[in-house]
Here is the input.
Amino acid sequence: MKPPRITDSSLRDGSHPMRHQFTRDQIRAVAKALDEAGVPVIEVSHGDGLAGSSIQYGFSGTSEMDLIAEARSVCKQAKIAVLLLPGIGTVKELKQAVDCGAHVVRIATQCTEADVSQQHFGIARKLGLETVGFLMMAHMRPPQFLLEQAKLMESYGANCIYIVDSAGAMLPQDAAERVKALKEGLSIQVGFHAHNNLGLAIGNSLAALEAGAEQIDGCLRGLGAGAGNAPTELLATVLDRMGLNPGLNIYKLADAAEYVIAPMMPYQPIPNRDAITIGYAGVYSTFLLHARRAGERYNIDPRDILVELGRRKAMAGQEDWILDVAQDLAKARDQQKASGKTPAKDSQERTVYA
Amino acid sequence: MISDRVKVAILGSGNIGSDLMCKLLRKPGLMELALLAGIDPASDGLARARTEGVRTSSQGITEILEDPDIKIVFEATSAKAHVRHAKLLREANKIAIDLTPAAIGPYVVPPANLGEHIDQMNVNLITCGGQATIPLVYAVSRTAPVRYAEMVSTVASKSAGPGTRQNIDEFTFTTARGLEAVGRAEHAKAIIILNPAEPPILMRNTVYVMPKGDFNEQDVVASVEKMVAEVQEYVPGYRLKSEPLFDLRDTPDGRKTVIVILLEVEGAGDYLPKYAGNLDIMTSAAYRVGEMFAQKILSSQGALV
Here is the structure.
């Protein structure tokens, strides 16, 4: 095993728990701390990628282009990465991000729809960017299927393909099998992006590493959607113990987690009741806060909403389905009440979906 | 001799071209489908046209340009291809009804501005998501000025052909401009999501509208419901999932009431099954616009007699 390259996504995946309200000062402080600790790639974007600022996903407090430029201004060695989801962001925003100092683009598609990214990889390469393909919700398809999608991105010009466990639903074996299939079938690097909904972010990242992954994502204090991601400081420390530290200063990273990011976090993402349900149901981690809101509005247990979304096979970015499901569940409940039937026993009822 | 129908051609034998062919064959109205032109002789669309007895060509636009009787051409290729074709069609004096997001001609959404561009030689139908959601934004803006509109279109993977996939940036860009130009929102944003679930999902659109100032919720509901009925006249499977919702959201202008409209579009099942409401709304709109131009051509011919 070789030491992996670490990309820190606190300033992108972390945008979700921050409700996309990162300030210029916060971005500078975090980017500077990561840069000084030796992190080679720092991702900065709206949580849903460039141009994600919207009613659907939440408006950015500060323009992401300004945030990218701020991060770039304090980094001495780290490269700035941006996330682009075709269908949300376009090459127009990508070009703006490059003007603001982005050097790496991570182009994310549903793991079944890699062919929507062809134009974006082509232009990214022309712009001289390092390119990463992000296969989201990768728990939903088997390894060989993912390999075919990864090959498409490789043919479009990707330098690396990530298996992205957007739902935090994978077990270590799932992560390992998927990375291994890509390693065997591709001639470019492979990466892994974990979520901690089932408490397996570090474990899955290690399984991916053992299976050959060369790039791993983390976020300080795990700050990210759902139960968060693999904590960068923890990942670095574990890698150091394994003799695989890729040149990160583990004291400085722990300080960055403790004194820079923790004070700005609205809450500590953990595998709590609703986040565990996301991993269990296999839905997009960012549904967490949206499902809670809809649950409050319609007086429904957010777990019921999340499990139903899983049953309907909701994909990344489908936050608007949450309202559909909440309405449908509320309607069903009200009809049941009106007909005078005893509601089905809660806990037993729920297991039926799985 | 004056024919009672105007000869039309479809350029592009993919999902959209094939679906439009089905509609023209089922109910020709004032149009006669003279030719389906593609570039892949083995495409399913051309094969089906041959079975139906429709003249076909796999030489792209060439045969269309050579036939002076063809007056109207439905362009169902890709935005890039249409940029080239638009010029050729204009030189050949043929009306182009553009179903790609190339947006060379003015935008047309039938229930909002059908008659406005009848003198143009090239009109654009924006995108399937635009045809589905612009009527709703227009319905709100006719009761209260709209500061911002946003649409999210989720379609089944199987209903998105290679043209859509290669032009996804053009989809988001053109749809947003359509929400502004025809829906009359000051600013707009469009998002498209492909969902691979089996069985395939019906086309689902969510429209968020932020009016500029205060507005009357009952007027909005009434205007939206009236619009839905208008669209149902040509797309029967166009329906709201619930009454429009009014939801407080954090916006750049502070906490504001946002109108949320959840829309489902079930297709007629002409070429692709009923889940592909995105095809149906596009081709039904194209058919409507085609009828309008055909009517104009026929009445001018009548005037010459």
